[in-house]
């Protein structure tokens, strides 16, 4: 960097929702490396900013440019590649560049905090002549005590060890350091390969897939591993990870938020020892930062984490794995809106490395991409055990009196499986006791005050709760409208199902897993441990149990109520339903016994229900894809959604009208259609009214042209707290 005294200007990214960067004057004598954080004056206060570039000239009036206040980093927090990736994310997803760039940093560094070394500091002894030693021994017994201990340990001592010897160790160590009789080093954790589990023998299919994929492990490619539930995808990942580690490469291994159970962590630990680190939302900001740091420094080679771990920095990244790639938790729906799978693929392309997507129920986007040969498809359609995944059977519940959502035949089946020492999984994606409370006299219903939603009855806490905003109220003893005493609840939630099944099967443990009983990963793991013992039990759960777990004693899985999704307004509902059914049914029969899978429905004649019994996931997916093609829906079209929320619906609609009028000037020229603004499906949520404006086209180029031409104007449409608007590129919901 030049060290002349001519003025120098820096372009900075600041985490605010504006589509612009900011210029500041840099101290001409300091190095100005892109990716370094500075403390900047901003408005009446200060904000941290990341330097994107610097130059000796500026297009602005130099007199008006404020100088930076302080440099916060000795070395860049983001390297050139991450700066480029964040530029791409901002550009593709039409998000404010400063917010995107800060999103690439661990939260810990998004403030003005100093970087901390992730490694453990240790003190080692220097060579010492007899005279100096004698002086220390005579004059300072405490210094001598610590020095002797440090000399005695060959690897040096860390703060915790020194503290054990002398609680006031720090001052003593400083004194020894100033005499230069000891020195500190940053200790990298040793790779402990001693107790690692060897790789198991692969079956024929797995070996073939590993071999095929190994040939694609240099240069950019996207590999799609379509493997039926229980076919051993994880083992394929492990083999490819090992290959990359052998080449001194690092691996990012992404899993959905709920996929990060102790079961997977234990498996990774058993195979790769301390060569991996974990990052997910259950950790503190400092812990996540340390994981990020360890990976960046190369102290560990595998980053196992959820969505945002995608932005882990690495000097030698060799592979990105996206497990359960169809999972919607990869799409970030608040703040910066992006899809982690798609950004991962872009990142792999930029670095010229492979990306590996895996799922038993690949997303329609990925299946379409593999059909068009953008992705290479690999299939695992066998389980290593003797039994194939169970075929889904329908249980017709028309004209039947159900007991807490269960048909007589279902209860009979459950009993059979328990009697045969099997475990039974019941999937019900509705937590609480009952989803609706109403008065028979006047028709009063329990509605949330802040959302267009009903309050759910939670009996254990004796509350009516809103699942969207958290609003809670006591259960009224009588109807609040007419005073009638007999208000009733309708529908079944997991709480009620648990209670009833426990009454029916008194001898059998009933385990319920949903957000009300499991708040952290550890609690989930503890709950699931009961299943590990393999004794007969009933497992009830929401989508938390739908995927990623492997419990060999489950011999029967049941989707209790699939009908709601059949008539949903969302065009993605059928895809989601089929994925859930295949994932849930695939939990069954993974061990030494064959499994069964049932779906209860009042619509057994529905084409989708019929196809479940006769077709594979791929076959059903193909027919949903052809429907989408006919309708011109994604993945055959791209969707750009403008969303607004405000204190009144009119305000939200007006804001989108403003945006629409800018778009209209161009859309007609390109023959594109703008749909809306219309109120969102659930218009009022958490006290705010929401509306949307949709731009959809099969022609991505036209779409981009319209946006490129319109964005400079759209960017100027004000967004305030009272009327907020945002863009959602590749929106999942219409
Ligand atoms: Zn009433
Ligand atoms: Zn609410």
Report the portion of residues in β strands: 15-25%
Bound molecules: zinc ion
Instruction: Describe the largest sheet.
Output: 7 strands, parallel
Integer-rounded radius of gyration: 30 Å
As for the CATH topology of the largest domain, it is: Rossmann fold
What is the first-to-last residue Cα distance?
Answer: 50 Å
| Counted beta strands | 30
CATH architecture of the largest domain: 3-Layer(aba) Sandwich
Can you count the helices?
21
Q: Which structural category fits the helices and strands?
A: alpha/beta
Shape: globular
The CATH class of the largest domain is identified as Alpha Beta
Whole-number tally of structural domains: 5
Uncertain segments of ≥5 residues (pLDDT<50)?
Answer: none
Question: What is the mean pLDDT?
Answer: 90
Biggest sheet strand order reads: 11-12-10-13-14-9-15
User: What percent of residues adopt helix (DSSP H or I)?
Assistant: 25-40%
The CATH H-level homologous superfamily of the largest domain: P-loop containing nucleotide triphosphate hydrolases
Describe the protein's topology.
Layout: E1 8-14, E2 22-26, E3 37-42, E4 45-55, E5 70-71, H1 80-92, H2 97-103, E6 120-125, H3 130-139, H4 141-152, E7 157-158, H5 159-165, H6 169-178, E8 182-187, H7 204-214, E9 221-227, H8 233-246, E10 250-254, H9 262-272, E11 276-279, H10 285-297, E12 302-305, E13 317-323, H11 340-351, E14 354-359, H12 364-371, E15 376-380, E16 392-396, H13 408-419, E17 423-427, E18 436-439, E19 456-458, E20 463-465, E21 472-474, E22 487-490, H14 494-504, E23 510-513, H15 521-532, E24 538-541, E25 554-559, H16 563-566, H17 573-585, E26 596-601, H18 607-614, H19 617-631, E27 638-646, H20 649-670, E28 673-685, E29 688-697, H21 700-714, E30 723-729
Parallel strand pairs: 9-14, 9-15, 10-12, 10-13, 11-12, 13-14, 16-26, 17-24, 17-25, 23-24, 25-26
Antiparallel strand pairs: 1-2, 1-4, 3-4, 3-5, 6-7, 6-8, 18-22, 19-20, 20-21, 27-29, 27-30, 28-29
Bound molecules: zinc ion (2 copies).
